[in-house]
């Protein structure tokens, strides 16, 4: 089954697009196949439970039953280049390990 | 992406976030870029989904509304004389003292992805935020930002881009 990196944000336009773009580029650079990067609105997250490999959260997530490890995606917006790259590496590792 | 001198407001005095959003929305509306209620829409969204960001050395915000009220994608920027409070996007319970506001009017984020990416690069570099804040005229701030965000249509060469890119670095 394809792996899914879910970029979750509150209202889902600009913020999640910024994160999605960086993750997708990294996935391509790493040559990973069968990995989907998708923006998901927090209110819609219910129907993706069980399908997500990693959750990248651009907003505060209050629930712990997502069935996938969650990382804070804020560095994609305000992190230094190094912080952005470190977070990308971490996400890729999590996807490979899953 | 529309971005011009009238869409840069430096050293404005505002007591609250809503006033900054209204001011920038009015400027966007004056050029026909957004609907008359874009400010109200943006404020309503801000209350639900705050856009304050804990950048360094001072916080920023990038308020925006949904695409309905947007006639043409645009950016409007304000620097504030005194900080105003926005809620933190990553933690809505936290107040942030914001000194720079980047208001986006976006018809389609995927179409503007290059600009969004360049904005995120800027947000991650304290020296760039300081450099922007220290521009003394709207025109200077505009020229500087256009270069940083690669919004050139002005035929500036790569050497100029590099010069701008190394400011304060």
Question: What can be said about this structure in brief?
Answer:
The complex is a heterodimer of chains A (98) and B (169). Chain A contains 3 helices and 4 strands. With 98 residues, chain A is α/β, with parallel strands linked by helices.
Task: Describe how the helices and strands are arranged.
The complex is a heterodimer of chains A (98) and B (169).
Chain A: E1 3-9, H1 14-29, E2 35-41, E3 54-57, E4 70-72, H2 75-78, H3 81-97
Parallel strand pairs in A: 1-2, 1-3, 3-4
Chain B: E1 8-12, H1 17-30, H2 38-48, E2 52-53, E3 59-61, E4 74-88, E5 91-105, H3 113-123, H4 126-133, H5 138-148, H6 158-165
Parallel strand pairs in B: 1-4, 3-5
Antiparallel strand pairs in B: 2-3, 4-5
- The coarse overall form of chain B would be globular
- Spans where pLDDT lies below 50 across 5 or more residues of chain B: 154-169
> How many domains is the backbone of chain B divided into?
1
What's the pLDDT, averaged over the residues of chain A?
91
Mean pLDDT over the full residue set of chain B: 89
Query: For this structure, what is the CATH homologous superfamily of chain A?
Result: Response regulator
Major sheet of chain B, described briefly? Answer: 5 strands, mixed
What composes the largest sheet of chain A?
A: 4 strands, parallel
| % residues in beta strands of chain A | 15-25%
> Helices and strands of chain A, in N-to-C order?
EHEEEHH
Can you offer a commentary on this structure?
- The complex is a heterodimer of chains A (98) and B (169).
- Chain A starts with a strand and ends with a helix.
- Chain A has helices at 14-29, 75-78, 81-97, and strands spanning 3-9, 35-41, 54-57, 70-72.
- The longest helix of chain A is centred in the C-terminal third of the chain and has 17 residues, at 81-97.
- Chain A is 38% helix and 21% strand.
- The model of chain A has no long low-confidence stretch (mean pLDDT 91).
- Chain A has 98 residues and is of the alpha/beta class.
- Chain A has one domain (3-97): Response regulator (Rossmann fold, 3-Layer(aba) Sandwich).
- In chain A, α1 links the parallel β1 (3-9) and β2 (35-41).
- Chain B is an alpha/beta fold.
- Chain B has a single domain (5-165), classed as Mannitol-specific EII, Chain A, CATH 3.40.930.
- Chain B has a five-stranded mixed β-sheet with strand order 1-4-5-3-2.
- The longest helix of chain B has 14 residues, at 17-30.
- The interface between A and B is medium-sized, with 24 and 28 residues.
